[in-house]
Amino acid sequence: MRHTDCDFCGWATVANVKCSDGRTILPDAFKHQDGIKVPLVWGHQHDDPEKTLGHAYLENRDGSMYAYGYFNNTPSGKLAKQLVDNGDLDALSIWANSLTQDSKRCVSHGEIRELSLVLAGANPKAKIETVIRHGIEYEEEAYILGGNIELMHSSLNHDPQDNLDLVNEDGEELQHEDAKKEENPAGNDKTVQEVVDSMTEEQKTVMYALIGAAISGDSDDEDLSDDEEMQHADGGRTVQEVVDSMTEEQKTVMYALIGAAIEENDIEHSEGGNDMKKNAFNAADTQEVNIISHEMQSDILEYAKSNHLTFQRAMEEYCAQDELAHDVFSGEDMGSLLPDYELIDPKAPPILYPDDSWVDSVINGVHKSPIARIRTRKADARQAELKALGYKKGTYKKEMGKINLLGRTHDAQTIYIKDKLNRDDILDITDFDVVAYNYAVMRHTLNQEIAQAIMFGDGRDVSDPDKIKEDHIRPIWKDDELYCMHFDVDFSAMGTELTGSNNGANFGKNYIMAEAIIAKALYAREQYKGSGNLTFYCTPHTLNVMLLARDLNGRRIYSSKADLVAALDVKGIQTIEQIDNLVRTDAKGNQHKLLGIFVNLQDYTLGCVKGGQITKFEQFDIDFNQLKMLLETRLSGALVEWYSAIALEEAVEAEDDET
């Protein structure tokens, strides 16, 4: 789109330039707005319609944004145009929001909402490059100023059909032969006179009639679309039909002449006493007011939904927190020496949980059954002598050994989490949606409790009424030896095996511990009957001990976690902080400290109704003005394959009683 009839053009913002507000606009940050039309405003003032000076079209040029500005035929628009024409103002500034920026305040994306004419811009290269003067006296004299076209008229009583003369930069008249080399408002090689000469007599008549109407002021309030007003004097085609028959070049020149005529007429009226009642550029009226338009409301609603914010808070963040007013006088009040503290992250505060990276792997890793009450049944042929026998004639034929049929059942148990919020708090907390935030905390806590119950139990005493019962959701670590095999790791024995009695002089403690754990895990795999593809769940300390194992020369035995995974013959290693210091007491009263668990969670079945869907309940208590919230599910779970888990433990030595 060509903008040959604009009042000025220049750079709205230039990429890769560090601005006075600390931001840097990256190339193509606003590329998606190429060709759009935005308001032209004075100093980013959005609370006063008089501060709207006109409009501008944006163009993406070499990664930056170029602008073509058009001033309105209003008092403030004409005053701004005069200031720009005189060179008093030449700085531009964009106002944008919905910004995407990194920690270094480099803006990679945003939405330009308006372009402002300012005293000084934050981007030093955001300047007006070219001023196009469309003024015209009625003699249609035109001259070129520094490559910019200026059309002027000198006499209101001159015959409008006189030929157009041109003057050069020094004011010397040019003959029509030389004028052919000058530019016209359409931006090509033809002169204004040549374009006018290319019109038909009918088109010239209409053009001069419109110029005359503009000078007399009749066109200000008349509706030229009306058929009676548009009818030509000779009874032929309407004015609109004649204008439509013109070429774009002819229209451009005609509109330039009409615009200049209107401007001249308005200037004379002003001299006659019709002064502006208010200066659009009065700095004392400058305020920072956050407002939104109807077209922005849908964006704010979507922003509020995606970030779980109230509409009021979303509007504040949308208009204030995430905006770019690239004017050195915009932003923080200069009179505020101690500004208020601002949150680095205005969203809901993050929560510091215990190590929970393993929770999702457990919840997603177990096999889920739509049946809440689980029954498992297997036949044990290990104790029976299942052998074929040789027969001796005349002797009794013996029966083979009997197979033991083993089975167990698991009933479901309801697991829930309940909380409440005072309505006063819900209304007072406007930074984020506290109800949605609280539900997220409850859901995370519920998932973590279920994952702990599956792996090693909820940690509550058997007599605790809130305990998740271990015959409903059986912890892998505490399950029967038929399902989870328990092995003690003897670190002392491994040290003796490696180096004899003087192991400290040859190997470090970490190497001995790592070799002891790996050796015990591999030997235990000889009895393993699960589906394979195991994951090793251990404490972060246990993992670090093995990774820090070194040889006599100080070189690490396992240079990475991947090397350790290969040595253990597992698919992965997952750390669980909550395993630390867990102790189990066996049937003989001996205590064992848990080091880690090898298991494929597909061998663990979690029985639930409708896939374990968690149900949310919400009720408002009128008496206490509280919102009560509940999340609950009903589950059962256990290992369903024999010898499908391996628990590595360290024997806890009993302390001698004090005498």
Give the low-pLDDT segments.
Answer: 135-183, 218-234, 267-295, 331-338
Measure the end-to-end span. 99 Å
Give a count of the beta strands, DSSP E runs of length 2 or more: 26
Mean pLDDT value = 76
Outline, from the CA principal axes?
elongated
**Residues in helix, %:** 25-40%
Rg calc: 42 Å
CATH architectural name of the largest domain = Alpha-Beta Complex
Quick structural overview:
With 659 residues, the protein is an alpha+beta fold. It has 3 domains: 8-132, Serine Protease, Human Cytomegalovirus Protease, Chain A (Alpha-Beta Barrel), CATH 3.20.16; 141-271, no CATH class; 358-377 and 409-653, phage-related protein like fold. Helix content is 26%, strand content 25%.
Provide structural commentary.
The protein is of the alpha+beta class. The chain folds into three domains: 8-132, Serine Protease, Human Cytomegalovirus Protease, Chain A; 141-271, no CATH class; 358-377 and 409-653, phage-related protein like fold, CATH 3.90.1690. Helix content is 26%, strand content 25%. It has 16 helices and 26 strands. The strands form five sheets. Strands 1, 2, 3, 4, 5, 6, 7, 8 and 13 form a nine-stranded mixed β-sheet that branches. Helix 8 crosses helix 9 (311-321). It is elongated. The chain starts with 7 loop residues before the first strand and ends in an 8-residue tail after the last strand.
